[in-house]
């Protein structure tokens, strides 16, 4: 009987990311992919290279942090999880976005996701019932999505698919961390989708 080898996935926390959030993310990734997850010791936002922070936006460049994950992680796949607010700079593949929940490169080895906008804040947090369950689902969806992009799964037009674009929390909250039928059957560069 042959054994499927696990792909090494390294999580790099940057900023004030709770151990509970990291455990939720690691668990989601193990549930959906054949990966061996390791979690690095946390980095401080102050340790980030110059150019990753935009003072005019008061946000960090998600593209730069995704590249940083790929360059500094120890895994075949590397995911930065940060508490920092992110934007996406314009590239040849995407237009600039004022804020994003995360960034990943299709078939790259680095991605980033932010917990900053996933947690209820202000009045919304007072009105949110079951906010812990909402936050847990958001963390799981974003982690599964960005690792999906790293292994070669592109964005999806099926609104229920984890790979569908989420431009706001309402759209994100409609999703579960599951692939649609078409995406679950797609060939990827690693045979890791469960």
TrEMBL record:
Q: Which cofactor does it need?
A: Zn(2+)
Q: Which domain of life is it from?
A: Archaea
CDD domains on file: Peptidase_M54
Tell me, which GO biological process terms does this entry list? Answer: proteolysis
InterPro entries with a match to the protein in the record: MetalloPept_cat_dom_sf, Pept_M54_archaemetzincn
Q: Does the keyword Cell membrane apply?
A: no
State the UniProt keywords alphabetically. Hydrolase, Metal-binding, Metalloprotease, Protease, Zinc
A Pfam family: Peptidase_M54
- Please provide, alphabetically and separated by semicolons, the GO molecular function terms listed in this UniProt record: metal ion binding; metallopeptidase activity
Q: Which PANTHER family match?
A: ARCHAEMETZINCIN, ARCHAEMETZINCIN-2
Q: Under what name is this protein listed?
A: Archaemetzincin
Q: Which organism is it from?
A: Salinigranum rubrum
């Amino acid at each position: 009987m042959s054994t499927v080898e696990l792909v090494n996935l390294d999580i790099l926390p940057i900023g004030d990311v709770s151990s509970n959030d990291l455990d939720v993310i690691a668990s989601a990734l193990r549930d959906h992919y054949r990966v061996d997850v390791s979690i690095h010791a946390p980095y401080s936002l102050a340790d980030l290279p110059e150019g990753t922070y935009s003072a005019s936006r008061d946000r960090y460049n998600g593209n730069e942090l995704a590249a940083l994950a790929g360059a500094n992680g120890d895994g075949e796949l590397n995911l930065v999880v940060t508490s920092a607010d992110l934007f996406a700079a314009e590239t040849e593949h995407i237009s600039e976005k004022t804020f994003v929940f995360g960034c990943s490169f299709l078939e790259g080895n680095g991605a980033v996701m932010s917990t900053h906008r996933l947690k209820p804040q202000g009045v919304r947090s007072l009105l949110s019932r079951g906010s812990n369950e909402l936050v847990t689902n958001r963390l799981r969806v974003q982690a599964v999505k960005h690792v999906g992009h790293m292994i070669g799964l592109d964005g999806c037009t099926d609104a229920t698919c984890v790979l569908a674009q989420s431009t706001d929390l309402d759209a994100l909250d409609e999703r579960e961390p599951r692939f649609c039928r078409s995406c679950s059957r797609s060939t990827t560069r690693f045979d890791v989708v469960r």
